[in-house]
Amino acid sequence: MGWKVFGREFLSGELANTNKFQSMKMKRNLILRAVRTWVILNNDPTFTNLNMKIYSNEVISGANTPVKLLHTSTNVQAKEDILSLNSGCKEIWFEFDDIPLHSETIYNFVLNGTGYVFSSNSHIAWRCAWPDPVYQAGFTPDAVNLGESPYAIYCIGGEFS
After folding, report:
1. Range 36-56 burial, b when 16+ CB lie within 10 A, else e
2. Which of 76-80, 122-126, 129-133 has the lowest mean pLDDT?
3. Which of 112, 113, 114, 148 has its CA 20 to 30 A from that of 82?
């Protein structure tokens, strides 16, 4: 039996900018230790490694927008450590230096990388968390809204006052 996943591919330059991001507001104050997320690798894409960055948020024309870089993961995920096959879907993680995230603040999580070469036949995609995202503020999980599904991303940490 197969497993069907959905994702949004990274085009040329998008692993070096903030075009693709996931906005999140924590349910309570959180000391962030790590972030888990999923990537889809199609036909042995060319890249060196991936990291995660956290940006502040500004609402521009009614949409959340990453503005100022706040934190960068302390680790990277090298291509050879993510997948040894030509194609696949893999959960990866990024560690942080126990950073405080406040429940009243919106943060933007950005997947970045180096050495990426996009091709329509060979690329990286960020997996969508459809049909059951953990952070689904304002999202109705049905087939009509599949294209708006948040990315599969999960914060690991502990609560603080």
Report:
1. ebbbbbbeebebebbbbbbbe
2. 129-133
3. 148
Distances (CA, A) of 44 to 37, 82, 88, 89, 125: 19, 11, 9, 12, 12
Q: What sign does the dihedral 55-57-60-65 (CA atoms) show?
A: positive
pLDDT at 59 over 80: yes
CA-to-CA dists, residue 105 to 29, 113, 137, 153, 161, angstroms: 9, 26, 14, 17, 15
pTM of the model: 0.91
Distances (CA, A) of 72 to 95, 104, 120: 9, 21, 29
pLDDT tens digits, one per residue of 86-128: 999 999 999 999 999 999 999 999 999 999 999 999 999 999 9
Structure tokens given for 69: 């870089």
With contact defined as beta carbons under 8 Å apart, do 152 and 133 qualify? yes
**Mean pLDDT for the stretch of residues 58-84:** 97
Cβ distance 123 to 142 under 8 Å?
Answer: no
Domain boundaries, the chain: 7-159
- In angstroms, the CA 58 to CA 65 distance is 5
Q: How far is CA 92 from the centre of its chain?
A: 10
Q: Which two tokens stand for residue 135?
A: 């952070």
